[in-house]
Design goal:
The complex is a heterodimer. By secondary structure, chain A is of the alpha/beta class. In chain A, 43% of the residues lie in helices and 19% in strands. Chain A contains 13 helices and 17 strands. Chain A has helices at residues 2-36, 56-75, 95-107, 120-132, 163-173, 187-203, 221-230, 244-255, 272-278, 280-283, 299-312, 320-339, 345-352; strands at residues 43-49, 84-90, 114-116, 137-139, 152-154, 179-184, 207-213, 236-240, 265-267, 287-290, 356-359, 362-366, 372-373, 377-381, 387-392, 412-415, 422-426. Chain B folds into two domains: 2-120 and 185-377, ABC transporter involved in vitamin B12 uptake, BtuC (Orthogonal Bundle); 121-184, no CATH class. By secondary structure, chain B is mainly alpha-helical. Chain B is 72% helix and 2% strand. Chain B contains 16 helices and two strands. The chains are: A alpha/beta, B mainly alpha. Chains A and B meet through helix 1, helix 2, strand 7, helix 7 and helix 8 of A and helix 1, helix 7, strand 2, helix 9 and helix 14 of B.
């Protein structure tokens, strides 16, 4: 009896195993064939984003943008005649997994560079890995600043390229209106609000309240009630909520009759993708601050939007982090070409500083502090779910890594072009 | 006065959302003793059903579009009830009386469902259905042969890789031929937007404040659902059978009650209520693969605090938790104790959304120390069975 059972189990296991081998053979053959024809050995690059878990919503489209850039570069002849080959890893919205996968990409896959991360938590988790192995990470999302690593290039906005100009614009546009700060309860909104409070104190604005909601919570009723108590005659809601909470928040303030005429909101985490998910009817006439909107009217922007839609479908939209992810692949490519090859990371890093590119958001340039200079825009959400650009800086704004409003970092700067200055030096 | 009324309504509205979400769970957990971790994902399926129905109604134009919500409620109930039935027949039936295994199994199901809505595309559907037709079709065909038990393992060995291979290759072939139209996910990982019909936007003016119509709608829906469930359980023949099986399964079986059918029916109704809850919460938040996870912990809290198996317990617990959440979160008690510095500091400290949750959980834990079986414990000996 026991023997029969074992044999049966063995047979089932064996058949499943052989079946899967058969499947592997069937599916992997066409992929193997396509790479061989190209000239030169491919350059391996790592892509490390969350393809599952709570952050997948945002990060999947960033991977799409990175893959589009890689595809375009390969079709145009690659980097120094070598095609780029992406090794894609899933960080699973889990910071430990990000650490593991970044080690794997560097040690096992021997990638030339890693494009990745969205949340500050994931970036802070992989930062020690990249520093200890002295490797390179390109990071595409606007963030709270107060960091300047030798091993990271930040192509999203620093606070002075998104938060500070938007507060200045609000002070100008809505004179004397008090601010209420609402954010998700983690590092970015808390740091952002510290900066905003310091800035408002310096410039004569008033903050009447500050509230945080758990990431992912839809229980916004108490916070909305508090806003109503604090701002009975209306005021500005500065919103750094992330993810699903935004939806509940905007639906609730509309239901409470707090429209954008009396309670205009300025958001720093709502872009075209999020508008689609929240619903235009709840967001119409509210504001958001970014460097890039799909509606930016430049030839580069049109080309980017058309190429993206041709690749992934007409109903897809592009947004700021996707644009930053797209251009960072090009910036890295230019740096490798200037350095003469991808393998000497010291040379690639030195060559990256000063790279210029005609990006969809306008001309960008990599500054010595590893951030890039870029144009800042304020958009008003329109009927079609896209942003009407109501304000833009005349040209690119220089990035500032260490915030000049916050007391602890005031007077400091970062400069990697000069070894004596480095991460943090007194101006 | 309006401020007080406003606050009370806000608290009740949080509670009614919790209650609607917990109602299905209360039935499944309370009557059957099944810890269904996939309850949140059933809600998510209900929310996605609402999204699909809404898209079907969109081309019809203004007057008809406003009515889609009624169709969506019915559709959400039916779809999730069928999902629940499949879940009960396929998984839970084998695990009755083993709560820990049920917990793990249904948690696995919840993960599968989450990933399913992220990646479901025509290619996946074609591949999966082809596999099911080939494999289960052949197995059921073979099972009619008299010597089935003897050839069963051989049939598995041949059919499993064969049907997997055929389904896989056909799906890949279709994907290669048609590219984007079939490989594109239906919903994707991106959250989607459910548009409330015009008459659900805005709110009822009450002096200086305003009560959102969506919240009123959910409140009404909750009341209707409770009345429906109560009538069903206490006024219908099947309700009587369900209660009988809950109290004593063996004796009910002896008396000729088809316990398996009762189990399936109870689970299907509980799941259907999850679908209705999903439809309702889609008007509060957005619809995404994680929609269900936002509610699952809170709904379990409601069921546990209320007392397992008692409808009235769930009602009182949901309202209590909702009002406590509101009162602590907005520091409504602060002004009352302003003269006592320590107390007012204490309440001010807990008066934000994150800390209010901590306080509510602390209150629940200490409450359960005194009444471990909840507010309205089940009388009798069969609770732990």
């Amino acid at each position: 009896m026991a023997r029969g059972f074992n044999r049966r189990e063995f047979l089932i296991m064996g058949s499943v195993a052989s079946g899967s081998v058969l499947l592997k053979a069937c599916t992997s053959s066409p992929e193997g064939g396509s790479g061989e024809g190209a000239a030169g050995d491919p350059i391996k690059v790592g892509i490390l984003h969350s393809l599952s878990g709570t952050m997948a919503i945002s990060e999947k489209s960033v991977v799409d943008a990175e893959q589009l850039a890689i595809k375009e570069i390969n079709e145009a002849g690659g980097v120094l005649g070598r095609p780029i080959e992406a090794v894609i890893e899933d960080g699973q919205s889990d910071w430990d997994v990000f650490t593991e996968k970044s080690k794997k990409l560097i040690d096992q896959d021997k990638v030339a560079v890693v494009f990745g991360c969205w949340t500050s938590a994931s970036r802070k988790a992989v930062l020690p890995v990249f520093e200890s192995k002295d490797h390179l990470l390109f990071y595409p999302v606007q963030y709270e600043g107060q960091e300047c690593s030798k091993n990271i290039f930040y192509t999203g906005a620093a606070p002075n390229q998104q938060i500070e100009p938007s507060v200045d614009w609000l002070l100008e546009e809505y004179k004397d209106k008090p601010f209420f700060l609402v954010g998700s309860d983690y590092v970015f909104p808390r740091t952002a609000n510290t900066i905003i409070k310091a800035q408002l104190e310096a410039k004569g604005g008033t903050v009447v309240g500050e509230e945080y909601i758990q990431l992912g919570s839809t229980d916004v009723t108490p916070v909305v009630a508090k806003i109503q108590q604090a701002l009975p005659d209306g005021g500005i809601i500065y919103n750094s909520l992330n993810g699903d909470t935004n939806v509940a928040f905007f639906k609730q303030i509309q239901g409470k009759g707090m429209g954008p005429d009396k309670y205009p909101t300025m958001s720093v985490s709502i872009a075209e993708e999020e508008v689609k998910a929240i619903g235009v009817e709840y967001l119409k006439d509210h504001y958001a601050a970014w460097n890039y909107f799909q509606t930016v009217d430049t030839p580069e922007s049109k080309k980017f939007v058309d190429a993206f839609k041709a690749e992934y479908g007409d109903d897809r939209v592009v947004n700021d982090p996707m644009e930053a992810a797209y251009i960072m692949v090009y910036l890295w490519k230019q740096a490798v070409e200037q350095a003469g090859g991808p393998d000497d990371l010291e040379k690639v890093r030195a060559a990256t500083i000063g790279q210029e590119f005609a990006a969809p958001n306008g001309p960008v340039k990599v500054a010595p502090n590893h951030h890039i200079s870029k144009t800042v825009r304020i958009g008003k959400i329109g009927e079609d779910g896209l942003f009407e650009i109501v304000n833009a800086t005349d040209g690119p704004v220089e990035p500032i890594a260490w915030n000049q409003y916050v007391a602890e970092t005031k007077g400091f700067a970062c400069d990697w072009s000069d070894p004596a200055k480095g991460e943090k030096f007194k101006i | 006065m309006t401020a007080l009324l406003d606050g009370l309504f806000d608290g009740i509205s949080i509670g009614s959302v919790l209650l609607l979400a917990a109602l299905g769970l209360a039935i499944v957990f309370g009557l059957m003793g099944v810890i269904n971790m996939a309850h949140g994902e059933l809600m998510m399926m209900g929310a996605y059903t609402t999204f699909v129905v809404q898209n079907l109604f969109k081309p019809l134009g203004a007057p008809w579009f406003g009515l889609y919500i009624i169709v969506a409620l019915v559709a959400a109930f039916i779809v999730t009830a069928i999902m629940g039935l499949i879940l009960e027949r396929g998984v839970i039936r084998y695990l009755y009386g083993r709560p820990l295994e049920t917990l793990l199994a249904t948690w696995g199901v919840s993960l599968i469902l989450q990933q399913f809505v992220r990646s479901v595309s025509w290619m996946l559907v074609i591949g999966l259905s082809l596999f099911c037709i080939l494999f289960f079709g052949a197995m059921s065909f073979l099972s009619r042969r008299p010597n089935f038990q003897r050839i069963r393992s051989w049939a598995l060995v041949i059919l499993l890789p064969l049907s997997t291979g055929i389904a896989w290759n056909v799906a890949t072939f279709i994907g290669d031929v048609y590219k984007l139209p079939v490989t594109k996910p239906w919903f994707g990982a991106q959250n989607v937007d459910v548009t409330a019909p015009g008459w659900l936007r805005g709110g009822l003016k009450l002096g200086t404040s305003q009560i959102p119509y969506t919240r009123l709608f959910i409140l009404g829906l909750t009341i209707v659902c409770i009345l429906g469930v109560y009538t069903f359980l206490h006024r219908s023949a099947w309700g009587l059978r369900i209660r009988a099986v809950t109290q004593n399964r063996e004796m009910s079986a002896c008396l000729g009650i088809p316990t398996q059918t009762v189990d399936a029916l109870t689970f299907a109704i509980g799941s259907g209520l999850a679908g209705i809850a999903g439809c309702a919460v889609s008007f509060l938040g957005s619809v995404g693969p994680n929609t269900g996870q936002n509610y699952i912990v809170d709904t379990f809290m409601v069921v546990v605090v209320g007392g397992v198996g008692k409808l009235v317990g769930s009602i009182v617990a949901a309202l209590a938790i909702g009002i406590a959440n509101y009162v602590i979160g907005t520091n409504a008690l602060g002004p009352l104790v302003a003269s006592v510095p320590f107390l007012s500091d204490f309440f001010a400290f807990f008066a934000n959304a994150s800390m209010a949750k901590v306080m509510v959980f602390a209150l629940i834990i200490s409450f359960l120390q005194f009444k471990p079986a909840g507010m309205f414990p089940q009388k009798g000996r069969t609770v732990d069975a």
